[in-house]
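Q: Could you fold this chain for me?
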Amino acid sequence: MLLALTFFLQAFSQALAGSGGSHWTYEGPHGQEHWPDSYPDCGRQAQSPIDIQTGSVQYDPSLLPVEPEGYRDPSGSTFTLTNNGHTVQLSLPQSLRLHGLPSKYSAVQLHLHWGGKGHPKGSEHQVDGRAFPAELHVVHFNSDKYANVSEAKDKPDGLAVLGVFLEVGSAENPAYNHILDHLEDIQYTEQETPVAAFDVRGLLPAHLGHYFRYNGSLTTPPCHQSVLWTVFHQPARLSAAQLEKLHKSVYATEEETSPAVLLLDNFRAPQPLNQRTVLASFPAGPSGYSAGEIAAIIFGVLLGCLSIFLAGWIVAKRIREKRMQEQKGVVFTASSRRAIAD
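A: Sure. Below is the predicted structure, expressed as structure tokens.
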């Protein structure tokens, strides 16, 4: 009996290793604090995400704008949307490519990270300690050097990921409905559904020239340190109703599991930067403001102070003039009375 149990455990462990490792979650006994126990890379020194401190980033004018190819018209393709128990993931064809990076990178998939209803945090990266409600990651592999993502995923120059902060705006973002409107078809883990090809460029911010760049890792196990990160400065916006779909539509459990557990708070905490350098393609300043924005703020403050000074000077002048007139009136009255008395 004992021998049979030992054999079963060994077979189970081998099966887990063959499928990519042990079970992991974001919280609890298999949560992110314990990832390094089963996935050693998760405890290394160049992990992601990070809190981007804009006062410490280095402006690099040689960083080129990111140029997506094929994003607007991925014709002839059908995407697959999957609930893998950790996130919702959309497959992408390799015909979607990135230019403006050290190598040519081809798309693999995109996925989302988000928080919970009423929670302001949900993004993985932060800027000066500020987290956003959600974050989009678009994953690519180095197709100049490697045949596919399986070959590239653990290489130091193997992957490039675009990070897009998502915040709540006043209007609906139609591009995200291509994903959000299909969530009801993948409510439970291991479910998938086909999605007609759409303009993937619409998921990204309008301006792709301002971004932060650093070397890091996958933000989930096995946490390979193989990612060249591009985190855009400008967020994309969703309506509150669109964000709510993420909060209430998908589960981290299989359909037959009871009770069902909503898929929420699927973000990793910021990791130490250690000796890494974060570059910026624009002159970034504290709190994420560019140099031009900081100059405008300073000019506005100085102009406001000048206006207050001028207003105070005018009021003081009028008060002095009024007092002088009152004093002249008193002198005139006193002189008139002396003249009458004489």
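A (continued): The chain is about 25% helix and 20% strand.
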